[in-house]
Amino acid sequence: MLRTFLKPTNLEQLQTRLHWVLRITAACCFIGHGAWGVITKEGWLPFFRSQGIPDDVAWKLMPIIGALDIIMAILLLMKPRRIITMWMLIWALWTAILRPISGTPGTWEFWERAGNFLPPLMLLILGGVIAMKWKDWFSGYTEPKLDDDKIGVLHFICRLTIALLLIGHGGFGAFVEKEMLINHFSSIGIPADVGFINTVGWFEIILGVVVFALPILPLIWFVFAWKVITEFLYVTEGGIINIFEFIERWGDYGVPIALILIINYQTRQSATKAVPEAQAA
């Protein structure tokens, strides 16, 4: 069944499946992020401080922000509206920008969250955002029909997203030497140290570059498996409460699936076109 789902046979199937994969991806990101707001998270305090918001106010704002995130996710799943998708793009981009603004390690935190802010952008492209009337932003819609140009754009953004999130995460190990990564791998019995996460970090950076330049199916499947496993280390290291960290990073798994859908469709179309040409020859 999964194999059939990942191999759309026509444009309508690709469009419907891509739309759902990206909707679920964006929704999961906001549900995971929103859950931490409702629970409240001390790690968010530097982001508020960077905007001049005192800690006592920040603790009160977190549940409100978290609840709003979850509401946006539910609304997106119930009925897509372009205004919701635009809000998700702006908010996910802003929360990613807050990382370097607040003094967290360089821009690595920003790039690592490409899986948060680029899926909403792809949804906007699917939904059609050019030459719309004001009311079209607020009404429900049936996404406009895909064409080869739009598929090509989505293919590029998927590759870019995967490359950025891998390179960003790789920077944690290769340059920042985040202790969190040592704890993650140690939680499953791997004797990790700084040298180990340096190696893993460079591996992820190289993998990101290779995926962007050479997006072939076996490589995309490897990235999907790699990200599912490595992001689940949040749970093995920190307990079941960290399942929300795993859910928040759904873009790391959903975007590879979106790219697999596109590649399978393009491969099928190329094969279909090749048959008449061969017969004509």
Give a quick set of tags describing it.
281 residues, globular, mainly alpha
Helix content: over 70%
Count of discrete structural domains: 1
Low-confidence stretches: none
What kind of oligomer do you see? single chain
Number of strands: 0
The pLDDT mean sits at 93
Strand percentage: under 5%
Radius of gyration: 20 Å
Number of helices, counting only DSSP H or I runs of 4 residues or more: 13
Q: Which class do the helix and strand fractions yield? A: mainly alpha
For the largest beta-sheet, the strand count, sense and barrel status come to: none
Secondary-structure element series? HHHHHHHHHHHHH
Distance N to C terminus: 37 Å
Based on Cα principal axes, name the global outline: globular
Overall description:
77% of the residues lie in helices and 0% in strands. The protein is an all-alpha fold and 281 residues long. It has one domain. It is globular. The model has no long low-confidence stretch (mean pLDDT 93).
Q: Short summary of the structure?
A:
The protein is an all-alpha fold and 281 residues long. It has one domain. The protein contains 13 helices and no strands.
How would the blueprint of this fold be written?
Blueprint (H helix, E strand, L loop, with lengths): L1 H4 L5 H29 L5 H5 L5 H24 L3 H20 L6 H5 L1 H14 L20 H29 L2 H8 L7 H20 L3 H22 L4 H6 L2 H30 L1
Helix pairs in contact: 2-4, 2-7, 2-13, 5-7, 7-8, 7-13, 8-10, 8-13, 9-11, 11-13
